[in-house]
Predict the 3D structure of the following.
Amino acid sequence: MLSNQCVIISLSSYTGDEDLYLQQAVVFIEDAIQYRSINHRVDANSLRLYRWYYSRIWQWGLGLTIAVVLMLAFIERPSSFSYTSDPRFRPTPWEPPCGLTEGIEIVCLVIFAIDFATKSYLIGWEEFRKCKWLIVYILAVSASVIDWALTLSMYCDQNLRVRRLIRPFFLLQNSSLMKKTLKCIKRTLPEIASVILLLALHLCLFTMIGMLLFAKGEQNGEWEAYFRDLPTSLSSLLVLLTTANNPDVMIPAYSLNRGYSIFFILFSGFGTYFLMNLLTAIVYNQFRGYLLMSVQASILRRRLGVRAAFEVMFCQGRGQDATHSEEHQLSDGFIQWEAFRRLFDELDKDRIKEHPPKPEYNSSLLQGLQLLFSHYYVTVVGNAVALANVMCICTILVLDSEKSIAERDDYYMEVINCFFILYYLMEMSLKILAFGWRGYLSYRNNIFDGLLTVCLLEPSVAWPDVSVGDGASGQHAHRRPFPPNHP
């Protein structure tokens, strides 16, 4: 926790300008909102660069750069970008000319270098030495540039490209969630090592017992299929540990003697239902503990940022070298720290979204329609109609499951779809009448329903099928639609 002295905040670049204090307070509040560390430069130029670095434009641009450098694998040689995975029908993939993907990649690497240089400058040398991610970041960029230069020097005829293995690191480095996941895995590995060792011993012990129990003999299908040699026995029991081949692995032995099932019951009971569950419990407990620690660290960063902003604004009024108490008089134009913290706790609460007001109509008929179709039960009825639509489609598909596409008569399906689409269109129109355009679009479920209705409406406005009666039998003879210019 920060003390009440202003010296805990780095103000060595203080010039006496009140705007500097205000900029520092704004940046500290932004750090608190985003759960960022306040250990960075706080002079005027660095603050402007800091806010630009964490702006939405730069962060979106950096994310787009990472996406581009990862998608290069689809078009680089050897390319696997094709519409089918069957080698018999797959055409020769397009190979970009030498220098095309390399040019795109060097632009991405330059952006990564700018990102690294900016972040390193903002946090300073002392913090840079503590941050292992940034050290590995510069090593990854340097190795990628060296490998890129080697590729161009060999006229893109390089078989092994090390930088392809490095590319996923750029995604890890830019994602705080993935960093936390890797840290949690690192903390979990020592805890689960003993259980993994116990699983390995359990697997090896039962493998040797199984090879002795199911030795080679006449009509011994268990030995032929699952226990022929050590690798086969080990792989069979390893798959059985996950219950993927259960009970297939024990059927040949069970057919000869039911007593052989005791071997498999003991193996699965101790390995699958005890050790595997113990392993899952340890992993869950470690992730849960790390999640709690991560939440506590985030809350501490937020409180630290708010307290830093408070101290900066307090120093602006009292002076940098003045010593003071945390209790201030409101008559002096200051606010106490507890009130300041409560104020930001209130600002941090979720904002209650208010929908736009409904339109006002003079007609009693329109007022009645507005009252009716703005009610919650209209949405319930709409969901019930959508469920009936799905049930009708499923029923028709089940009835036509044994028929080929040429034998199917889609007349009843088209009639049912036309009825439901007209209902959806009427419901959407009346809701727009009741809520207005702005009020209708303020509900996400209305936006989804409207888009779905428009998508269903587009195939329906095509040229309809012509169905005529058969006369004697009274059945429908389905014909293809005439083109619009048919005489």
The beta strands are 466-469, 476-479. DSSP finds 16 helices and two strands in the chain. The two ends are 87 Å apart (CA to CA). The longest strand covers residues 466-469.
